[in-house]
Design brief:
- The chain has 17 helices and 9 strands.
- By secondary structure, the chain is an alpha/beta fold.
- The radius of gyration is 21 Å and the shape is globular.
């Protein structure tokens, strides 16, 4: 049995002092007249946020709120990479027979994204869930990885072994961004353990005649509806105007890492742009923005480490890489939720090429960070998918999400 211990997040005072000095000594770039978001994060916004970060933002208050979550850590042995200390949130439901659900984040998100859905999914409302939300290696408060080649299969192995260490041999998953791809690879590698997955970033391809003849004909004969036309425009925007970061992080992460590790304002601008562009007019507060950025600045591995997943995933074998996560994976039931301001928004026929789809939902609003922007909508979909009459009802034997309520158990 792995050693599982409570974890209290506590950033050293001298680290906060160094941060304050760097913020005070920031040298800002100039800006074109009438500059807009098409050029990147506006100078006025970054100056305002920098001033607030230095003078008013209270990391200790944010840290205390994070420490109200049930944080733990445990060592996980990863093949060829040794032992990594993994931080995770683990909230159990008071409902006997609650469904174990792994929540997997991406970049530039973190474990914190689970905090809004945590009280909803673990309440006595059924179906109820036990929620596990790790900081991925190289992210948040988990260990850095120092060897090359740590990619989607290794992230999948980390998450799977964490679930086993917690006593959940069978479980379900939810993921967006890299969490989508990691959980998809988990369903490929561990199909007898991963009983169903739900994703809110749907990356698929047009159905091919020889592999999906009926779906191919449906796709060819059915005109795009308004959602799909809007989705195509959103996808085009991302590829032509919003994806430059991905190329840099996938080709030269070390070079970019010097700037993000040395300049808190550089890190702020790099992440803030995504929080703005990838959401559906979500009203970010300055405190929310700075807490998201601070988790990267104060992370155990440092901000640069989180970029390497892009580099390694681009060089992983096609059998277990990013491309494989976008093709048919059998056996494991799949739920899909489409948000209109996701980075790419594909037709349903594309999504149905990914696997045995048992749940689909289209939303009128919402973007890339579904658990943060639209927590109620995501919770509603998970309950519909795994509840009575849902396509994934009863997938975890003995853990249907319904049962006699007991006192809230402890880990």
């Amino acid at each position: 049995m792995a050693s599982i211990t409570p974890l209290t997040i506590s950033v050293p005072d001298n680290q906060l002092e160094r941060l304050s000095e760097k913020l005070q000594n920031t040298h800002f770039p100039d800006e074109l007249d009438e500059a807009g978001w098409d050029l990147g994060a506006p100078l006025a916004d970054i100056k305002r946020l920098t001033k607030y970060w230095q003078e008013k933002y209270d990391w200790r208050k944010a840290e205390a709120a994070i420490n109200q979550l049930p944080n733990y850590k445990t060592p996980i042995d990863i093949d060829r990479y040794g032992t990594l200390d993994i931080h995770f949130v683990h909230q159990k439901s008071p409902v006997e027979g609650a469904i174990p659900l792994l929540f997997c984040h991406g970049w530039p998100g973190s474990f914190l994204e689970v905090s809004k859905i945590l009280p909803l999914l673990t309440s006595s409302t059924t179906p109820s869930f036990h929620i596990i939300a790790p900081s991925l290696p190289n992210f948040g408060f988990s260990s850095p990885v120092t060897k090359r080649g740590f990619s989607l299969p290794q992230y999948a192995e980390t998450c799977h072994k964490l679930m086993l260490a917690l006593g959940y041999p069978h479980y379900v998953t939810q993921g967006g961004d890299w969490g989508c791809m990691i959980t998809r690879i988990m369903s490929l590698l561990y199909p007898t353990n991963v009983r169903a997955i739900h994703i809110n970033m749907v990356r698929g391809h047009a159905p091919a005649f020889f592999s999906n003849p009926l779906l191919y004909l449906q796709h060819k004969l059915t005109p795009y509806n308004a959602r799909e036309k809007s989705g195509a425009a959103r996808s085009t925007w991302f590829l032509t105007e919003g994806s430059g970061y991905r190329m840099e992080q996938a080709t030269k992460p070390q070079t970019l890492g010097y700037s993000l590790s040395d300049s808190p304002v550089g890190l702020l601008a790099w992440i803030y742009e995504k929080l703005h562009d990838w959401t559906d007019n979500y009203s970010w507060t300055d405190d929310e923005i700075l807490t998201w950025v601070s988790i990267y600045w104060h992370s155990t591995a440092g901000p640069a480490a989180s970029l390497r997943i892009y580099y390694e995933a681009a060089r992983t074998s096609h059998d277990l890489g990013r491309e494989r996560s976008e093709r048919w994976i059998p056996r494991v039931k799949l739920g899909l939720t489409y948000f209109p301001k996701e980075l790419t928004v594909v037709p349903k026929t594309y999504g149905r090429t990914l696997g045995p789809v048992v749940f689909e939902s289209e939303k009128a609003t919402g973007g890339h960070f579904a658990a943060w922007e639209c927590p109620g909508e995501l919770v509603k979909d998970l309950r519909a998918m795994f509840g009575k009459g849902g396509g994934a009802e009863g997938v975890v034997v003995g853990r249907s999400g319904y049962g006699v309520e007991k006192g809230r158990p402890k880990l």
